[in-house]
Amino acid sequence: MTITPPALSVFETLESEVRSYCRGWPAVFDRAQGARLTDEDGHSYLDFFAGAGSLNYGHNNPVLKRALIDYIERDGITHGLDMATTAKRAFLETFQNVILRPRDLPYKVMFPGPTGTNAVESALKLARKVKGRESVVSFTNAFHGMSLGSLAVTGNAFKRAGAGIPLVHGTPMPFDNYFDGQVPDFLWFERLLEDQGSGLNKPAAVIVETVQGEGGINVARAEWLRALQSLCHRQDMLLIVDDIQMGCGRTGAFFSFEEAGITPDIVTLSKSISGYGMPMALCLFKPELDIWEPGEHNGTFRGNNPAFVTAAAALDAYWADGQMEKQTVARGEQVEQGLLAICDENPASGGHFRGRGLVWGLEFPDPARASAVCARAFELGLLLETSGPRSEVVKLLPPLTITPDELDEGLRTLARCVRETA
Amino acid sequence: MTITPPALSVFETLESEVRSYCRGWPAVFDRAQGARLTDEDGHSYLDFFAGAGSLNYGHNNPVLKRALIDYIERDGITHGLDMATTAKRAFLETFQNVILRPRDLPYKVMFPGPTGTNAVESALKLARKVKGRESVVSFTNAFHGMSLGSLAVTGNAFKRAGAGIPLVHGTPMPFDNYFDGQVPDFLWFERLLEDQGSGLNKPAAVIVETVQGEGGINVARAEWLRALQSLCHRQDMLLIVDDIQMGCGRTGAFFSFEEAGITPDIVTLSKSISGYGMPMALCLFKPELDIWEPGEHNGTFRGNNPAFVTAAAALDAYWADGQMEKQTVARGEQVEQGLLAICDENPASGGHFRGRGLVWGLEFPDPARASAVCARAFELGLLLETSGPRSEVVKLLPPLTITPDELDEGLRTLARCVRETA
Amino acid sequence: MTITPPALSVFETLESEVRSYCRGWPAVFDRAQGARLTDEDGHSYLDFFAGAGSLNYGHNNPVLKRALIDYIERDGITHGLDMATTAKRAFLETFQNVILRPRDLPYKVMFPGPTGTNAVESALKLARKVKGRESVVSFTNAFHGMSLGSLAVTGNAFKRAGAGIPLVHGTPMPFDNYFDGQVPDFLWFERLLEDQGSGLNKPAAVIVETVQGEGGINVARAEWLRALQSLCHRQDMLLIVDDIQMGCGRTGAFFSFEEAGITPDIVTLSKSISGYGMPMALCLFKPELDIWEPGEHNGTFRGNNPAFVTAAAALDAYWADGQMEKQTVARGEQVEQGLLAICDENPASGGHFRGRGLVWGLEFPDPARASAVCARAFELGLLLETSGPRSEVVKLLPPLTITPDELDEGLRTLARCVRETA
Amino acid sequence: MTITPPALSVFETLESEVRSYCRGWPAVFDRAQGARLTDEDGHSYLDFFAGAGSLNYGHNNPVLKRALIDYIERDGITHGLDMATTAKRAFLETFQNVILRPRDLPYKVMFPGPTGTNAVESALKLARKVKGRESVVSFTNAFHGMSLGSLAVTGNAFKRAGAGIPLVHGTPMPFDNYFDGQVPDFLWFERLLEDQGSGLNKPAAVIVETVQGEGGINVARAEWLRALQSLCHRQDMLLIVDDIQMGCGRTGAFFSFEEAGITPDIVTLSKSISGYGMPMALCLFKPELDIWEPGEHNGTFRGNNPAFVTAAAALDAYWADGQMEKQTVARGEQVEQGLLAICDENPASGGHFRGRGLVWGLEFPDPARASAVCARAFELGLLLETSGPRSEVVKLLPPLTITPDELDEGLRTLARCVRETA
């Protein structure tokens, strides 16, 4: 009897070895709705990853879907470079009325290209141009993107090595709680800035995530963020908040920095801004920083108009009042209870957890355990990913629109995975 | 009597000063079909820019539109990171069957993020990793993108200055015909490589466009491209063809380098690859270069599945046979005749033209004339842009699907603009 | 009556504005012997600066002078590139017999050019070549030289700005006691090295001074140096001790790191190595690091043979036994007593002091006071300089051969200056 | 019978593998006078290398020797940092009266440290500071020094690789005659500067040697140098002439650029400026460029006063009238005749020669032949070195004070070596 090995799929034969998520989730996904995906064989998966934070309103959200199909049906502009279009105006007006004005945020809006790294690149360019300095400070375990400018302020050694050139002009500083409270906040950073002999190249800007997603769900305290803003003001550095993963309501408020009461000089948004998972990004900055020359930064896909349509629809549907924020906080408490129960039930696992809004991390001393939990979760129909420098943290990032029941289901599955991997 | 100034639009008050196309085309566009856009006031414009080459099949192409709406309607995966999906498999298989296999191209396919600059960044990273060298050679008047890695191999001084840091690790070499035939091809480049005392850091790779679009429609001859490939082989450098603007049939064949009979080591594609103007990009490379580690380069919007759907539909509809290529060549001859007539009619303008397939440039000694031609064209309902280091070239980049009549109409309008700006 | 302004000297009209010491000491010096200089007007000055540590054996030391004149008289080789010469052999043998062998130090000896910065540049090159990494860690307030490689690991912001390019590939870490004991030693450095997400480019080497002279007479504790060596071993980084100012007996032992019981991988020496104030420098390294190709680093003045003659004479005269070290320790105690008395007498000045061997610093909270002390000292015939990032430290650096009486005289003058500047 | 291997010398056991000249000239040199060295075994060598151009007045020139010993005997200041001293004033006044004023050169004088690379580093810093740009253009096969700033504008790939980091901020341009007249001078350089899309970072300065010594005795024509100066003026770039090896009369006139009638913005001098082979260097620049802050560039051995004494004595003895220049030109003609005869006699060797003043190169198609000629010359008591990117050029660099008979002797020996290596 001969055994015929299964034919290799086109993913294995044609697609580059660089692919990654598909290795941990060996299925071919076909359809999705809300918090659920379905694969070709009809298996259903509960999504606790939400496109790495790009699907805050769930997959194929019906409200946005309707607006999107209408727009396509009527031959609205699809690709618009940076031309003025009806869809862009609608988005800009909605963004102003629903987001900026109620929060008293004075930002100008730039369309820097449709991805997060485009937004970060434009933010860094602008900061350097405004201040006339090259250096930028980032934080330990920061993640800001894969193009060279963004990668230079990203912490992960493996990703950095991919650059193939030495990454310079960036200096890492300790993120909040990096020393478990052993060291006063900003002691090192401030000393370097004040000491004319420190050897630190004076930075143009500081770039920070309020919660580090890729870095392991490290949550900065509000007072730490306020102290950082204050340090930036005292030392004439711009404060850039990279809100690509944590913005658009992930932590509760629309911007993740609202809770801290700070007003960054520059803000980057992407991932869930289109609402429908379509590529879109924004770079926001205080009007006095808008010293760009026309066309000084450009890009082909800055005008992804279908994304403007769903983005405006999402803002209208979810942010016209404070309902969304309240709901996220409530769901977050539900997750917190679930994780607490898991840790109580599994004291030997050594796991501990942290989070804000609907982004949570469950850390294991042994990275292999985190990996095993995610692998088992996949078998049980739950999509979970790890993060952190050693992939030691199981990351919970469900859609904000997930129902309490779904959330509960996912948490129960997670509990089972933790148990079964003991 | 008091005059009420017109209210400033949200584009003027809220959007950053960096916006550019919208300044030359002061209209608010609403809908589009094929080669025509319509603004809010109902004016119709004939599109000789095609989203900077992103709309080779015209706006909202009905074949692709049908496939796209069907996919959205049935809740196909929208945002898929690098997960395996039905839509991605369909695209990969179609790309292999319709494009790679018939051309005997052995490439692996990478999804580097949805924009051209993502593709270029990944190509440069890979080349540096493979060769273990930092330096890359680019060409005078090259354009490869706005993120730091791509910008360092881009020629334009104004765009480069936007980086705010010195751009290094790149060295420019003269593009084909840079010295009007005064200097043998690659004389300087080859001497530097062979001379151990030249001071050139040995490059990992050479990155080239076969026709420089942003650089002024500079067309490299096939023999120059072959000589470049040969030089790369002799000197152990990888050859990267950036086919972002010139690929997908713009010059006739699907890849712009086919005519020269070369096989680049790495190819970047974007702009018209999705066919519908949606963000999508590919990085192709010879299988022996596929030394990426899983996840070494990543990005949130690598799996823009609706774009995969339209991309596969476009390949099926237009590239299953040689019809598209023949048609583009024929249309190109029509443009050539039109430009010849214009130059004959306006000898005093000093204009001369060049191009391949459906990308053409009409250069004026005085950049102000090129600008005036485009401004007048807008008034007459024709969208035209300039390119070149001094914006001295009027660029013709209509959809490949434009009809002969539309093409004729546009050329007649262009002729009128040239006349009227004398 | 007309007043004729005094003619400007050639120093003011011809020499560049970059000159500095001559501004604080406005005299034209003519002759010198031991610890005393004499200016053209016959004024005598007691030297508490010793050529910034280049004249440890005093000015024109008679023993060395005799050897030098003999060598010149007999037409010994003056300029020898890196050719083998009698004088070089004598130096190498003496250095081996008197310095290396008794200390059981296995170093190979490189002549990197005659200045300290040549030695540092060669040390950094070698470290990078050995480890295949670009980055080097230095310390806050480090001083390693003015050429680009050395300047990149130097702390002073004013000197760094002189580079005219962004200085990269270096990262500063806190020197010993930078936080007054608030923070455990190497907490930050070690965390960055161990955390794969920290964003620190893994360093090839660490470069350190055991006592920072230019940085303000900051004295590293022996246990801190040992912990640093241990960290370097654990993390596969080379340890470079820059002993240019503190070597050759300045702190007591010949090498300043002997007291700590460490064996750096690479050591740089210069300043007092020739003994007579003539340009000479050495780079020492463990034999397994000697992977230089012949001629890979070179320089015209590597073979300053008269300096080899005085260097060998100085080693013979002062280092054949332990006398010099004992004497320096004794003189250091005399200085310590003097400074203690000064601080006791002037509690309001807020001054405090620190030092080792014959290098001491008296710090004032107000930099203007330190400056005033030095200015008054000059009037009273005592040469003193400030150091530190704000020039807030009066630096005591007398020749090691100074007599107790001379030392006492200088300390009394210093005390008077402190009093008179209150 | 046992064979005792000869004991390894301290040069082999203790000195680093980086040593080079001593490998080709395996002798231990002891004494020297004029154009002759004597080794320990009493063998005499005629010096056609002159300390790589540092001994233009011969070894231990008696006039300078007298002044030097007198100075040392009377305890003149030896090490003076940048303090005003009698010896420094005498040098500055002599330099002004004998060199600058008669040539109507307005330069300010900076003492940048005692080596050539110190001078180049200071020149590059100043140019970058003045122009506010990072980039500097150098030429193919340039040699400017071994510290990082100088190395980045040096051509030799082997030396560059020694840096251990990518050398950036420099761009090589073709030196005069790089293409054997095939290409108009500066065609490439000027096109890059004028084309806003070229991708060349606008340079702060151009650094050039009028005759490239290490690069293979490549002689720039006067008209090429004038055209370069003119290009620098038109394009707002500073012109730096590195006259370290070719200045101090090597090509006839004191400055090598005098013949071309140009006035560089910045000039570096070292090697023979002290006259006696002692470390000393100068950086000269137009007064309006003297924007240094006090102490912005410094260094321990900037005040090597014995070198100032011999430098002043050399200027007085050799440059008070035009005798030296005439004599060098005459000696140069003698060398030219000798080389002509050698090439005539050995047509098969393919050798050809070039030079100016008393710097000449005899190039062989096969580098091994050049090497063999030098090796045989050593056996016959003649010191000769190779240069050029492949060490293919035998370099003739005798003291300017060599007698016609000595010159003839050396040329005859060289002729014999060429014959015998056929």
Question: How is this structure best described in words?
Answer:
The structure is a homotetramer of 422-residue chains. By secondary structure, chain A is α/β, with parallel strands linked by helices. The first copy, chain A, has 2 domains: 151 residues, Aspartate Aminotransferase, domain 1; 243 residues, Aspartate Aminotransferase, domain 2 (3-Layer(aba) Sandwich). Helices cover 36% and strands 16% of the residues of chain A. The first copy, chain A, contains 14 helices and 17 strands. In chain A, the strands form 4 sheets. Chain A has a 7-stranded mixed beta sheet, sandwiched between helices. The radius of gyration of chain A is 22 Å and the shape is globular. At the A-B interface, helix 2, strand 1, helix 3, helix 4 and helix 5 of A face helix 2, strand 1, helix 3, helix 4 and helix 5 of B.
Count of DSSP E strands of chain A? Answer: 17
By DSSP (H or I, 4+ residues per run), the number of helices of chain A equals: 14
Provide the number of structural domains of chain A: 2
Q: Could you tell me the mean pLDDT of chain A? A: 96
CATH class group of the largest domain in chain A: Alpha Beta
Percent of sequence in beta strands of chain A:
15-25%
CATH architecture of the largest domain in chain A: 3-Layer(aba) Sandwich
| CATH superfamily (homologous) name of the largest domain in chain A | Type I PLP-dependent aspartate aminotransferase-like (Major domain)
Keywords (chains A, B, C, D): Aminotransferase, Pyridoxal phosphate, Transferase
Protein name (chains A, B, C, D): Diaminobutyrate--2-oxoglutarate transaminase
Pathway (chains A, B, C, D): Amine and polyamine biosynthesis; ectoine biosynthesis; L-ectoine from L-aspartate 4-semialdehyde: step 1/3
GO molecular function (chains A, B, C, D): diaminobutyrate-2-oxoglutarate transaminase activity; diaminobutyrate-pyruvate transaminase activity; pyridoxal phosphate binding
